[in-house]
Amino acid sequence: MGCSLCNTNIESDRPEMLGTYDWLNDIPDTSYESNIVEIRFKGTRKEFFRNEDGIHLKRDELVVVACSPGHDVGAVSLTGRLAELQFKRKVKKPDRYEWNKIYRKATPADVIKWEEAKSRENKVMIRARQIANELELNMKIGDVEFRGDNTKAIFYYIANERVDFRELIRKYAREFSIKVEMMQIGARQEAARIGGIGSCGRALCCSTWRTDFTSINTDAIIKQGLSPNAEKMTGRCGKLKCCLTYELDQYLEAQKDFPNELLSIETDKGIAHHFKTDILQKKISYKLDRSDGRVFILDLEDVKKFLNMNKRGEKPSIEGFAEQEPKEENMMNVGNLDQSFFTKPAPARIRFKRQGRTNGNLIQKTIEAKK
């Protein structure tokens, strides 16, 4: 999960973006053990570089790194042994990884140029969307990221189908006088870059600590016995919530003790049908056909015992398992409310107006009667 020690970012307006908790911060510096350094850029983009010159680097320091073409500016997120372990975990084919080097620590001139490049991003993104609409391309420009040397920009886009954006690239290069790189992302990646607050009231997992965006299907909802409500089950990205998989293993482990099918139980009061299941608590709710609305909550072991009794032709009694009715003192009794609350006298200003209208009506009726 995210924490106060890893919520730093090169973007001051997005402090919650992806950071990495340094589990080795309580041991001596390990940067001499490996020259691999993890650099953090805008949003969720991170890359690994070689510290070939042996520059002494600390976390969150701005550095100038090589890229193709030109150079970029980023913040150090990991160094030493921890960066090497992170590289092995995230890079599937390390032999084919294209290494770039770290040039130097960022100077004030580098930072000024980098800030100028970042200041262009919002205006360029708006104009880029307008150009894409003019070309009638079925795509959405989600974000724009300028390199630190202000000569190249990455345009992140979302598209549900193949898009021929060759003409779009030419227009972008002519309009913005930069080199253009198009990068397709999914809805989850866009939500991670933009960020936001989830229904739990916390920052989105994808924009704070989650780095892998695996596909999630409806089986995760069914196996946990959750309500298939589209509004509750979808996140800011419009896809199923990533947190649906966090407790899935515990539910699958608990379901091993359940029978393949929860059959109805034939009791001495009639047939009780399966109503609801609490998988983790291993409790099952049953309801009789002609009951008064009561729900019978049974433990899993009791259900197995009753089903075995049905197989032997016996009809168990489940009266002792009835759910307790809600206590009356916890219910609102409208009859006991103070009725004077609803018959409070009107304010003086309104009361005088009412009296004026009433007196006027009486006088009018008296005049008509005399006539």
3D structure, described in words:
The chain is of the alpha+beta class. The chain has a domain at 257-339. 29% of the residues lie in helices and 19% in strands. The protein is built from ten helices and twelve strands. Mean pLDDT is 80; it is low at 1-9 and 326-337.
Brief overview:
Helices cover 29% and strands 19% of the residues.
Uncertain residue ranges: 1-9, 326-337
Overall structural class, as computed from helix and strand content, comes to alpha+beta
What's the count of strands?
A: 12
| Global geometry | elongated
Order of SSEs, N→C?
EEEEHEHHEEHEHHHHEEEEHH
Give short descriptive properties of this protein.
371 residues; alpha+beta; four-stranded antiparallel beta sheet; 10 helices; 19% strand; elongated; disordered N terminus
Task: Map the helices and strands.
Elements: E1 36-40, E2 46-50, E3 62-66, E4 71-79, H1 80-90, E5 102-105, H2 108-119, H3 121-134, E6 140-146, E7 152-158, H4 166-176, E8 179-184, H5 187-194, H6 219-223, H7 230-233, H8 248-255, E9 265-267, E10 270-278, E11 283-288, E12 296-299, H9 300-311, H10 348-370
Parallel strand pairs: 7-8
Antiparallel strand pairs: 1-2, 1-4, 3-4, 3-5, 6-7, 9-10, 10-11, 11-12
Helix pairs in contact: 3-4
